[in-house]
Amino acid sequence: xxxxxxxxxxxxxxxxxxxxxxxxxxxxxxxxxxxxxxxxxxxxxxxxxxxxxxxxxxxxxxxxxxxxxxxxxxxxxxxxx
Length: 81
Hints:
By secondary structure, the chain is mainly β. The protein has one domain. It is built from no helices and five strands. Strands 1-2-3-5-4 form a five-stranded antiparallel beta sheet, with no helix packed on it. It is globular, with a radius of gyration of 12 Å.
């Protein structure tokens, strides 16, 4: 299983064939994992990925499963399982 590599930051274009864009605005995007990528935090396969350049983010609802958070110098990644 391929994991998201955050060693040089995160560029969604490196994974565009494996992630499906669900929503995007000026500073954030939500993506679905359609190729079984694994989480950079825990190593398990994740369902959804939220990527943000914003300083603060509010979520309207919580997912039913575990949440992992990973950070690069420029972005915050929230992964739901």
